[in-house]
Design goal:
With 341 residues, the chain is of the alpha/beta class. The longest helix has 19 residues. It has 14 helices and 13 strands. It starts with a helix and ends with a helix. It has 2 domains: 188 residues, Rossmann fold; 130 residues, Dihydrodipicolinate Reductase, domain 2, CATH 3.30.360.10.
């Protein structure tokens, strides 16, 4: 199976290098300077939080250069977190931010320059992305990228074939402390890492896809791609997923359901073990926890270049799917390649 897997990764990697022109270069001279963004899926607080950062110039952490101008409601009736919140968040976007609501994704795509898929249900992301990709509008897909590795590979394939830029990430990758530790010269050469965070479950998604993805994304921020096999210990109150990288390094994720549910990390370098940014790191003005991610999304829309390679995003999906397979096998190690077939 090695040859098909190699070909598949090469094809996916090409998606990141499709090289489309920046949005501003595509706009006519008479168009407004700000990139017009459309939202798909108003069943998460992210929809309102992202809009505040982009559309409220009075905020100290306002991100200029783009505005949310239209949205498609979406929603998943069989997911409690969606069905019980979609009307509330839709009303907020409509009434507080005066965002135009449209009846279809096709209608949305015609009105905007770029799209953010914020639907909380990863199962619908592939279907929602299809018309956006076909229109060659840059698209950010909020976590989880999809609800399966199969869908992730298909979404990447479509993006590559259409030359459409795609970017997906947890906001925790762009957390100020995470980025400061990543830049810390003491751990420039990462030997291993342990990360943790909440890991509530949702029955329609593989376990870590729903909320554990945040801690997994932090792990990959430090370790980069290259995980070979995943082992998982599961209890009612916690999960522990460990992975050996191709170069022998080990990464560990702890997903928490009982006790204090905080985020954190320990990064092992050649001469130091670091869990917090250097003391000399100047704290910026108070910003939304989504500031780093949304700023990265706006830059992605401007340039068409994703800050996270699509093949790394797919490997994160494979890591979490392999963790589910390991749970089913009583904790036995599951090769990443097995879930990529």
């Amino acid at each position: 199976m090695k040859a098909p897997l190699f070909v598949m990764f090469c094809a996916v990697t090409a998606c990141a290098a499709s090289g489309v022109a920046p949005i501003r270069a595509q706009q006519p001279a008479s168009a407004p300077a700000a990139i017009r963004i459309g939202l798909i899926g108003l069943d998460t607080s992210h929809a309102g939080a992202f809009t505040q950062l982009l559309n409220d110039p009075a905020r100290a952490d306002h991100i200029p250069g783009a505005r949310v101008v239209a949205a498609f409601k979406g929603g998943s009736p069989d997911v409690q977190a969606s069905a019980t919140r979609v009307d509330k968040f839709t009303a907020e976007l409509r009434d507080k931010w005066q965002i135009e609501l449209v009846d279809s994704i096709d209608d949305l795509v015609r009105r905007v320059d770029a799209v953010m898929i914020t639907s909380v249900d990863g199962r619908v992301h592939l279907a929602q992305a299809r018309p956006v990709i076909a229109a060659r509008k840059p698209v950010f897909v909020d976590k989880p990228f999809t609800a399966s590795v199969r869908d992730a590979l298909e979404l990447a394939r479509l993006a590559r074939e259409n030359g459409t830029p795609v970017f997906s990430s947890s906001s925790l990758r762009f957390n100020e402390d995470v980025q400061a530790i990543k830049a810390d010269p003491r751990v420039k050469e990462v030997k291993g890492a342990i990360t943790w965070g909440p890991a509530t479950l949702e029955p329609h998604h593989p376990d870590l896809f729903w909320y554990g993805i945040h801690a997994v994304e932090i792990l990959y921020t430090f370790m980069g791609p290259g995980c070979e096999r995943v082992s998982r210990i599961h209890t009612a109150g916690a999960d522990l997923a460990s992975c050996q990288w191709k170069d022998g390094r080990i990464g560990v994720v702890r997903g928490i359901r009982e006790g204090a549910q905080t985020y954190g990390q320990v990064v092992f370098g050649p001469k130091a073990v670091v869990s917090a940014p250097p003391e000399a790191t100047a704290a910026p003005a108070k910003r939304s926890s989504y500031y780093g991610l949304v700023a990265a999304v706006v830059e992605f829309f401007r340039t068409g270049k994703s800050p996270v390679p699509i093949e790394e995003t797919i490997e994160i999906m494979a890591f979490m799917e392999a963790a589910d397979a390991s749970k089913a096998r009583g904790g036995a190690a599951v090769p990443i390649a097995d879930v990529m077939k």
